[in-house]
Every structure is written in structure tokens, then in C-alpha cells.
Amino acid sequence: MSSNTEKLNLLKVDPVADGEQYFNVDTMLNANWDKVDAFADQMSDKVDGDLLPRLNTAQTNTITFKPGTQTITVARDMPVNVTTLQGKMLLNLTGRSGGFEQLPGFFLNASGTLDTVNKVSGNSGLKVTITNNGTGIAGVPIYNPKLGANGAKYLIRGVIKNGNLSGDGAYIQITDTVAYAANNLPLIKTSEKFVNCFALYDGTKSNNNTISAYMALKGQSGEYAYFDEVAVYEISNEEYIRVSSLTADEVASQYPYTEGLAGVKNPYAIRWTNSSKTDIASMLAFDTELLAPPVPTSDVERDRLEQGADGQYYKTSVWNKIVLDGSLPWAFAQSWTGYKAVTWQDVPAPVSNTGYITKYNKVVLSRWLAGSGATSADSHVLDGTTSDLWITVSAADSGWGDNYTPTNDEIKAYFYGWKMYDASISTDGSNIYNRTDGTNKAWCRRTNGFSSDNGYADGSFTLPNTLAFKFSPYELMYKRLSAVIEPTPSEGVLSFGAGENIIELGSGLVLREPVKPYRDNLWNINNGSPSYESSLTKFKIDRFIGVYKNGYLDKWIFYPNNVTKAGALAQKSALDYDPTGAYTASYIRLDKFPVSVIQSSIPINELAILNDLIRDVQQATRRVSAVELEKAEKTQISSPWIVPTLLNGWTAISGYRTGYRKIGNSNIVQMSGVLTNGVTTVGTVLFYLPQGYRPASSFVFTANSRNNSGSYNSITLDVRDSGAVLISFGTPYTGALTFEVTFEAEQ
Questions:
Q1: What proportions of the chain, in percent to the nearest 5, are helix, strand and coil?
Q2: Cα(165)–Cα(227) distance, rounded to whole angstroms?
Q3: What global pTM score does this model have?
Q4: In this prediction, what percent of the chain has a pLDDT beyond 90?
Q5: What letter would DSSP give residue 672?
Q6: DSSP string spanning 181-242?
Q7: Are 425 and 441 in contact (CB under 8 A)?
């Protein structure tokens, strides 16, 4: 019996049941051809009206990724095309004060101690104790605020943990003479953990010249609370309105605690396989820093990262950032009572009056305009017409008295972290050198690297020419005369999977840093415990992203960032470890940076998907990786000999080599010396090796010495991974102490 097809209703003859019937051409053939032809007309209209546009015009949807973690749902697997990132700058106006590595500037009805247990980051937090019933306050200055009619808006953020307060609780606040705070969130009473908090301040309502950051608590005498990571940022009017509607946790995510000139450092986007963030499904990360002024007037003022037509990412660098250390050609400029100006006269292509400078304690220097004059220390001017930078330095910071004019090399020593003093007055380094005869010059460093409150160390009569231990140099950021476009290293490709996608947007990701695991019972990476120093990474770690052996992902056990002083820890059993492998690690730094939103697009039709596939292939074949962007291979010529800054009375004997260098293009350091007339007790430091020349792990070796009568003896010198070269065993003669050794430097 005949039947019809389901789709086009074509006649189908049953050869058995209808085999004897007369063959009807119209019904059995022609009618079917007409139906097929009609269907062809419909499909032609369908292709012209629907399919061809999908193949001729790419259609995409725009997605904006925000800082932190978000969930995005899509119907199918698809690539994500990251199109644009912009620069951002968080400039903490309290310097390092709000990190509480030292006590704050003042207390009102309160006392304070540094607490090494109750903290969020760094070595310590601040414990504030009320001295009399009522409100107790600890305060730190806010440097160079804009107040009055042309004042700015400010955000203060931090974390608080209640100790034993029985009163209303604890809070942070920006205050002037009227203690005005635009938004003061509820007081913190939580004692189980540190809690994020913030407040806003409108500088236009101030009638004072100064403002301070207050850490305050209400309660009875002897009650206390803990504070950490207090920062103050200038924000725009738009941010001021937007932030007022955010939660404290959202503010903490978008405005993390930073120190110095903090741009968007090494941004990344990660798609996790689950909400526990244990496995990565896809990732895109960049090795760059995107800068901007703290409050840009438009997006044109921001650095931009965009994807080119070839699939490579390019940065439009509007701003330049330079470390101002002793390697620059500093010179004396001018002197005023209590301070002097020094100058660098070859700043590369700056725009006048666009400089931002932070000093070694991360305090922001004030700016005076080109063509005008200085009025105080800790200020600067950047002149684009002459490419001159002037910085004023106080006598207390530099050690240069009003009667003394420093040499160029002495200015360089200051920018390496050394303070000058008069050794005939005292040996603790605290005095000012104000002589005119040039005698009794000595130099020392700040013990903690950034404050004189902890005293000075490593006094020396030899003019230093290397970076002082723990010192963080000045930094300059300024607008370029012309923007520079440069390729940017990246790793990975971001994609969506069908269904829910957990996306984390952040910054501070270090890509594939070479590491040296250290073994006890297990192999360790970044174990901050004593004697494990050789396993440490370049930065403290918030969490590991992956460990790689010979370029391939390797399986390690990861531990959280509170297990050692260095942060997160990676371990592997001795049975599974390959001692012949080359290991690298990718991780997120423990110190924080601002995070910029990422503008992206996803394909919604066939041509858009095809274009993304082509772009991904181009990116894979043309992408400039971190390795590919490095300079051409170094030559085999050894680096020049570097003369160290000798300490504790030791001096180099003329005519003999004292110094260190790297051999060829290797990481092998050659160190030799012939010294005389220094302190001989065990533990005496002879000099420090800078980063890049320090051993991966401490070691000892034998040195020889003789007295002026010709007697000889052997002693042991210790080369520490901190860079210290010191006497570890025996008492050397002071006539001549000779040594030579080679070793592999840290990576």
C-alpha cells in the first residue's frame, strides 16, 4: 500500500502491494518533483534571508568582567575574545604607615603596640588599647591632600578585629578639625576574624590644611581592638557616589591595600572548573603593568591593552614608570635651610608637571610647577622642556647639613638607601654631617629600610655604591610626550563552557618563575621556615596557579598562604620528584594591586565563531611570549667587576682586586678580595652582595689572613643567601684578609 514521506509529503509506492497497478506519471513522478521544487524555493529564500547573513556578518555580544569572582551562563562552548583592558592607579596617601610595620604617628586617649599574631599582611598589625573610658584613637597623617573649595574626594579602607571591647565597637575615619566623614559604616564588633570596613570623606567641606586617618574604638579603659591594611585613596566624584552603595567586601576587592605607585600589575582572567577554585578550565594572563593617574580626567589618560588584528596583544603606554636609584646620573642642584635639591637632567620625553613620586617609605612627594621654586623638602618638579627632574631632600633623610654640598657619588649613595653622618660626633648614624673639611665622613642604612625609628646599621667609612639591605628606592611615574605601542607577553586563551562559568578577574599573577625546590622529607617550593630559604620565590605567594616541570604541568600539593611567613607552600614526595627536571611556578602574589575591568566579546553566529578560531590560531603562532620578548642571547664576555661597600672598618688594599662579577653569560659569581684593618669578631659583616649575586643557599669557605709580622692563619667566611658576607669561625689577622670563591647565584 502506498504512503507519503513525513517532511515533503512525497508519494511512496509499495512495490509489493501496488506492483500490478497502472504507473501514473503525474501522481508518482511529476507531483513529487513539484513538491521538491517548491521546497528548493523555500530553502533558497531561507538561505538568502537567514543563513547568508550569518556567514557574511560576524555577530558578537559584549561582556564586561568585573574585579573578583562572577558566574556567567552560556548555552554552548565558545571562545572569549578579550578586547580591552585599561590602566588604573591606587596611590596610598598614608605611605606605609597604614601597614603598621611601625607604630603610627600619634595616639589620643590610647596606647599602641605592634602585634605579630593579629594581622592580615606584613609582619605585624596594630593593637590599640584605650587608656581612659571613652574613645581611644591612633592616627597617621595623610600626605598632600586637596582640601577646601577645590578639594578632592577620599576613600579610607582597612580591616578591624575586635579584641575585648564592651562598648559600641571600632571604626576607621578620615578627620579634620570638625571630624567630618561623609559615610561612616557601623562600628565593628566582630572578634572572630578581621572584617573589612571603609568610610568616605569630602575634602571640599574641610576648613583645615591637614587631615588624618583615625583608627578609633569605643569602650572602657584597658579594652582594645586590632587594625591592619589601612589605606587612603583619592577618588573621582563618580567613584564617590558609586562606592557609597557598595558593601565593605566589594570595596576591599576593588580598592585593595597597596603601597607606592600601584598600577594594574600582571592582570588575569581564570575560568575555574568549580566554586572551590581547585582546577583551572581556561586562563588568560598578561605580563605587564597598566598605569594611569589616580583620578584620570578621561580614558585617554590611561594605558590601554588591546588585541590586534593578528591576534597579538599590544599595550598603548601613555605613562612611564622608572625606579630612581643610585644608577642614575644624579647631580647637586640647590640648597635651602634644612634641605637640598638634587637633579637628574635626562628624563626620557616627559610632559611637564605630570610627575608622581614616592620615596623609600612610599610617602607621596608634593609637586611644584615648572618655572616656580621649591618651598619644602619631599617635593619635586618635572620640566618637559628641559627633561629635568628636581627632588628636594631633607637634611634628616640625607645627612647633608646646610654647610655641606654632596658630591654626585654621595647623591647616588643616598638613592641607594645610605645616609651620611659625622663619625666624630657619634657612631650610631643619627647625626648630620655639617663639616666643610671633608673629614670623618661615614654612611649607614636604616635598619628596617624605610624609617629611622628603628635606628641605623652597617656603618662604613667607604662610600657605598650598591643598594642598601631592605631598601626600596624612590619611584617616578610621568606622562610620556608621545604614547608608545609595544607587544605584550600573554599566556593562555579564555573560553566558556556550556552552562555556568565561574570567572575570576584579578592582578598580580607571576608567570612561570624559575624555582629551586628544597628537600627535607618532602620537596618544598616557597617554604618560609628557617633553613628553607633556597626554596623561596621572588615574591610572597597568596596561592599557587601551577608548578611546571620542563614546561609541562606537574602535580604538587598546595597549602594556603598562612602556613609559612612566605605565604602559600607547594610540596611533593621524594619518590615523585625528578631531580633532573627544570621547575617553574605560576602564582598570585600576596601583595595586592588594583584590578581593571576587562571588556570582552563572545560569538553568537557562525562567522564570528570562525573569526575567533582564526584569531586563536594566529595568536598561537604569532603570540609574543615572555621568553620570546627577552633580549637576544647575552655574549660570553664576563660582566665588569663590581666593588662592594665594605663595612665595619674593613678597607681594600690598593693594587689588589676586591669585588665580584658574573662569569660569561652564566649565573656563576666570582668573588675575591684583599682586605685590611677591620673588626675581627665572629659575626662581623664584611659587605653585602646585591640581589642577583647572592647564593641560592648559604655556604661557608676558607679564607687566609696574615699579620704585619708575616704570620698566617685560616678562618671561615660565610656567604648568606641574604647577601651578607661575614666572619663565621676564627679570628683573622688584620694585616691582610684574602679570599677567592665561585658559586651559583640565585635565579
A1: 10, 40, 45
A2: 14
A3: 0.77
A4: 62
A5: E
A6: -SEEPPPB---SS-EEEEEEEEGGG--SS--EEEEEEEESTT-EEEEEEEEEEEE-HHHHHH
A7: no
